[in-house]
Amino acid sequence: MRKVITFILAFCLSVSAASAESISKTIRSSKINPSAISVSVRDMKDGKIVYSWHDKSPMTPASTLKLVTLMGSLDSLGSDYEFSTSLYKSVNNDLYLKLGADPFLSSSDLDTLFEAAVSKKIIEPKKIFIDDSIFDSIEWGEGWQWDDELNPLMQKFSAYNIDKNTLNIIVAPKTGLKVPYISIKPYYPINVMNLVLADANSGRNNLAVEKNTIYSPNTICISGTISSQAIVNIPVPNPRVYFKMRLDDVIRKNKIMYLKSYPRKKMPSDKIYLVKEVKHSIDEAILEVLKNSNNFIAETLFKLAGANYTHSMGTTDNSYSMLKEYLNGLNVSSEDIKFVDGSGVSKNNIMTADFMTDFLYKVSSDKNFELLKSNMPIPGEGTLKTRMLYFKDSLKAKTGTLSDTSAIAGYITTRKGKVYAFDIMVKDAKSSMSDKKDIEEQILREIYMN
Fold first, then answer.
1. How does pLDDT run across 367-386, given as a tens digit for each residue?
2. Is the C or the N end of the chain the one with fewer CB within 10 Å?
């Protein structure tokens, strides 16, 4: 009997070794330098590592970092958290607009607040103050690149979040003219160099946007061709200016008698009452962060969580303190990692694949774990819309992409029903992005099959 058991154990070990070698062979035979690849695979049943390749090498996690910062944020804020923007009135006939950094706040929401004021006969306020004390004044993460100022996926984030902090520039052909018409709605003071040509016969739009600092730091250049109306999205250069312009619009629309400025002032705690409040659920934020990798919302959530954790102003330092305590509570070591933002946009973020799979294994005991798993994209949706279709419902993963980095982390169920946490990071400036993503899929196929 002992010989039979010994044989079975030897057989299982040889199969496991063969499976691991097949992954290693795939890595060595790829077009990418093997030292640029980091892999960790951990059994979700007992937390043991079943495969590793440079798993303790510091790498850039890109947007896979959102898995960690989102769960820390949810732990601090709570799964029932609501973003809130409120309008209050004091006994001195002053109005206080208390900002909550709501990433879903719109101009129409702002209108709703002041419509309520008019309905309560508040039409001649003495002063309209803005309480923006929820956040500090830093609007970008450490290490974010100056040349991403026009990237529609990299908006600034602040207490003054409104309309997704994005400008819509409309480029439309005009009958009889070769040069199309360009407008910004709603209006924002930015100079636009129009180098676009109308080409009705092309059947498609081909536009490029770049900043032109030669003429003015507040000038963008739009070039290319269009055959039909197009909308170009760029981040709002100054969210506070944009917010106050939309507030001006609302004041005029509701015929409120106010022609003064909007001083910044923390709202008093007494002798004041609520006029109206606008709220949005955190549910949509979770979905946006995981499925669509929304940087703007991820950063806002992370900073809000830091504010809630310290019961003070939202700062990156407060958010890092919050996250460190959260990881300590999970018994996940943070010694070999460095996070400098909440979205993974910065190349200054450092993580190991071993850390990520340890986190993915231990976070399964978190009260919000089901929210994580149910909102992670499967092949065919979100950032996996056209990727990993081979795995169908066997994969739940968060992707990450930077100029020289591709990463993917999550959970995979093998064809034999075993569930593994995995992390794959590829950081290589010489290889193409398609090659990086190809090796990720090859490694996952080996895990799935073997």
1. 999 999 999 999 999 999 99
2. N
